[in-house]
Design brief:
CATH architecture of the largest domain: 2-Layer Sandwich
Binding site for Mg(2+) 2: 412
Cofactor: Mg(2+)
CATH class of the largest domain: Alpha Beta
Shape: elongated
Number of strands: 20
Helix content: 25-40%
Radius of gyration: 29 Å
Strand content: 15-25%
Distance between the termini: 20 Å
Structural class: alpha+beta
EC number: 6.1.1.6
Number of helices: 16
Keywords: Aminoacyl-tRNA synthetase, ATP-binding, Cytoplasm, Ligase, Magnesium, Metal-binding, Nucleotide-binding, Protein biosynthesis
Number of domains: 2
Subcellular location: Cytoplasm
């Protein structure tokens, strides 16, 4: 029998003994009235004399995280969602029978309820003197070993419930994530945007180029796709007369997993009628600066040892110029597919040598040579039209789109453009995409969204739209190196 099996067997045997003695293992009649964190904050400055004058008792429930036995007295720590607090159990205060039950049958990991007054120990630690004790939930499995905790990274993600129990830093990341999402909602609501929900299952996946997940609806006898983006539905709402809309929700892409990618991820997308991509650059600076000030009190954060300064305005660099100046790609190389492929071979950059679209080859060079160098917030603008199928052409140079991508700490955080609202140009771009699909590009759906074209033919006001990757945003503001650190239950390979 393995060591784990032995421990489980012993714990279950103890639990059965406890239950046989008349103590319920999973009662539902204890109601905590206080939180550990609030108690420690409110009474932080109280010395023993002031605490002794308090007539109140405090009622807390939490997980038993530590236990130090001194014979006729036990010190322990309880942990609730706000933190840990010390408790003190004394035989002549609690009663011999309950004291004996606690020492013999209460294990680390059990959820217990206590009630009693506060005092300070000789070392100054704020502590509850336990007058009443209740077993709230019996834990059959032991917590990870005390000193080493839960260190296996994959195990932390796979058993996130244990990760949250053992690691305060992890709990703080997810509190911050929730706060960031609330901040974004409040910001857009205050700016007159309407929060909406659009379909997660779509008959035609659109709004981005990515391999979708496929499902099937039996009643409709129809294949459906988990959405890769909400964009085309949000733009239908602009046609319908909602001039400012946003959605905070999941997207799904059937692609690789990495420190920056998860098959399902959270996106913020917002669309604003009578605005341009330049207006959205200003709005984006405002959002990120506001987040930084609210979280840190200043304009700077540290991410993975690098200081990031959100003070606007941020640099705005044309895509081609970035390749030449930052990526050190000679301008003449960018003019020819053959020269790009030769340059890539020489610099050991992996490209699909079947690719015919010049803009897509430029984009691969950008990913390898420019993106990792963009540490401070930087807008890359003037993207090639052939990799911007939903963006408006620039009026002075129709070869580029009125589009930006925001890069911070060497990765893309946001993508935005002035929206294409000419249904003729949009159909032509979709048809060009379809030709590429027929040339074996699996990320392009083999069907044009005719209803979206129809919607544009009714007239969509000029507008700008943007998508911000919420998971990457949270990574940035919590100093998390991997996207798996900021998603509660990231996707993993099946357990062996």
């Amino acid at each position: 029998m393995s060591e784990e099996s032995q421990v489980l067997k012993l714990r279950r045997a103890k639990a059965e003994e406890l239950e046989a003695s008349g103590v319920p293992l999973f009662p539902n009649n204890f109601r905590p009235e206080d939180k550990a964190g609030a108690i420690k904050e409110i009474f932080a400055d109280y010395d023993q004399e002031r605490l002794a004058k308090l007539k109140a008792t405090f009622k807390v429930a939490g997980r038993l995280m530590a236990k130090r036995d001194f014979g006729k007295a036990v010190f322990a720590h309880l942990q609730d969602e706000t933190g840990r607090i010390q408790i003190f159990l004394k035989k002549d205060e609690l009663g011999a029978e309950k004291f004996k039950l606690f020492k013999k049958y209460f294990d680390l990991g059990d959820i217990v309820g206590v009630e009693g007054p506060l005092f300070r120990t000789k070392t100054g630690e704020l502590t509850i003197l336990v007058k009443e004790l209740v077993l709230v939930t019996k834990a059959f499995r032991p917590l990870p070993e005390k000193y080493h905790g839960l260190q296996d990274v994959e195990l932390r993600y796979r058993r996130r419930y244990l990760d949250l129990i053992m690691n305060e830093r992890v709990r703080e990341i997810f509190r911050t994530r929730t706060w960031i999402i609330q901040y974004l909602r409040q910001y857009f609501s205050s700016q007159g945007f309407l929060e909406v929900e659009t379909p997660m299952m779509q008959p035609i996946p659109g709004g981005a180029t990515a391999r979708p997940f496929k499902t099937y609806h039996h009643a409709l006898d129809q294949e459906l796709y988990l959405r890769i983006a909400p964009e085309l539905y949000l733009k239908r709402l602009l046609v319908g007369g909602f001039e400012r809309v946003f959605e905070l929700n999941r997207n799904f892409r059937n692609e690789g997993i990495s420190v920056q990618h998860n098959p399902e991820f959270t996106m913020l997308e917002f669309y604003e009628a009578y605005a341009t991509y330049e207006d959205l650059m200003t709005r984006t600076e405002e959002i990120f600066l506001g987040l930084a000030k609210e979280l840190t009190g200043g304009t700077r954060i540290t991410y993975q040892g690098q200081e990031i300064d959100f003070t606007p305005p941020w640099p705005r660099i044309p895509f081609k110029e970035a390749l030449i100046q930052i990526g050190q790609v000679p301008e003449e190389v960018l003019a020819s597919r053959e020269k790009i492929l030769a340059f890539a071979r020489e610099h050991e950059i992996k490209l699909d040598e079947r690719e015919q679209v010049l803009g897509k080859l430029w984009a691969k060079l950008f990913d390898a040579l420019v993106e990792p160098k963009l540490i401070q917030p930087t807008f890359i603008v003037a993207f090639p039209v052939d990799i911007s199928p939903l963006a408006r052409r620039n009026e002075e140079n129709p070869e580029v789109a009125d589009r930006f991508e925001l890069f911070i700490a060497g990765r893309e955080i946001a993508n935005a453009f002035s929206e294409l609202n000419d249904p003729r140009d949009q159909r032509q771009r979709f048809e060009e995409q379809l030709k590429r699909r027929l040339a074996d590009d699996p990320e392009i759906h083999p069907e044009i969204d005719e209803d979206f074209i129809r919607a544009l033919e009714y007239g969509m006001p000029p507008a700008a739209g943007e998508g911000i990757g919420v998971d990457r945003l949270v990574m940035l503001f919590t100093d998390a190196p991997s996207i798996r650190e900021v998603i509660l239950f990231p996707h993993l390979r099946p357990e062996r």
